[in-house]
Amino acid sequence: MKERKSQTRRRFLAAAGVASTTALAGCTGILGDGGSGSSGENDQPTLADFRGSGELVSGRPAPGGTSIEDLPDLEGELSIYLGGGEGGRYTTLIDLLNQYYDGFEASAQTQPSSQLANVIVDEYESGTTQADVFWSVDAGSLAYVADNSATLDLSSDATSMVADDRFVTDQWAGVAGRSRAIPYNTNQFSASEIPTSVDAIATEDRFTDTIGWAPTYGAFHGFVTAMRQLRGEDGTREWLNNMLDQNPARYDSEYATVSQGITNGEVGVGLTNHYYPMLVFANTPDAPLDLAFTENDAGALVNTAGASVLDGASNPDLAELFVRHLLSAEAQEFLATRGFAFPMIEGVEPVGPLPTIEELSPPDLDLQSLSDVQPTIQLLEDVGILS
Question: Which single residue of 56, 166, 268, 307 could bond 135 by disulfide (Cβ 3.0 to 4.6 Å)?
Fold first, then answer.
């Protein structure tokens, strides 16, 4: 595991513009720089098709790591259970791989990760597994499926591609990291006023009536589950009740918390994943918006999307090779520059002003424990946050 550097408190998004998530950067060859690089309808995708664009992205060097050119060809049909999808970006990546390999066709069925995890376990126990790969937006769902023996071990060819052993197990490999963060309105707060602990958000008077959250959102449930693992149910209940006393504004999603609440000045701070402020800032670079990271608590949780091969897969070798492709230089560049995820391999850096995972200060927590979500739901119901 890499040694983590100490975090410095600074403004991140205001340092420079943030890359667009839709347009193409100019590159030629799958890992080359220069030229227009955009592939025609009948051409294989180039790095330009995998990579996002914008002032920061266009200046990025070609990514390091293993290129898909250096991996065996994907060939055959593959069925994927896709938990989440990140606004269609994951299906776009699947489409690019379908386009790159003439003899490969992957199809995806998309539902929330927790729902698909239950489907997978039910199918495994009944001997009717319907998919080859489970690609989930959170480690908790991956762990739940693995804990119920519904996945196959990955080979070292796949697991060794992940640079940090916090984000890989024998049964699943992380492909896109994310951190909890505190986005804030820069007209209401300065960087120095944002605390390094989520406890201050829940107790200090200056945050009363100006917090936004999305308590029905799966990412929030993962955050509360992490808090339960770190401080126990009583300590988490106390934090939740303190939050209720702060009279937080409720939003349907964490993206809405940022795009509607914080950016429009309805609230001053929020509790979200780090990439939602990045996505908002990409579309509105003059938004009064920035983000900060807490230290060594559930508010600093670093989670990951990941993939596993299902026990009962019709072609487990192809399924594992697909997982390896998700960890290729091109796929990691796609996830970093289009979705602002933290890359999982050496040689690909986060976009622009984002810190690296090593510069964050997450709590010491086994991501496998995030599968224990049901007690979190019960606790949220008990305190009146969920009905």
Answer: 307
pLDDT recorded at residue 200: 97
147 shares a domain with 123:
yes
Query: In Å, how far are 108, 197, 297, 362, 367 from 294, measured between CA atoms?
Result: 36, 5, 7, 8, 18
- Assess whether 72 and 141 both reside in one domain: yes
CATH number of the domain that 281 lies in? Answer: 3.40.190.10
Question: Does the pLDDT of residue 182 top 70, yes or no?
Answer: yes
Spatial CA neighbour of 177 closest among 364, 362, 372, 325: 362
Is residue 6 one of the residues assigned to a domain?
no
Cα dist. 96→30, 121, 325, 330 in Å?
Answer: 12, 29, 11, 10
Domain count of the fold of the chain = 2
Is residue 329 domain-resident? yes
Residue 376 structural domain: 179-301+363-382
Same domain, residue pair 97 and 193: no
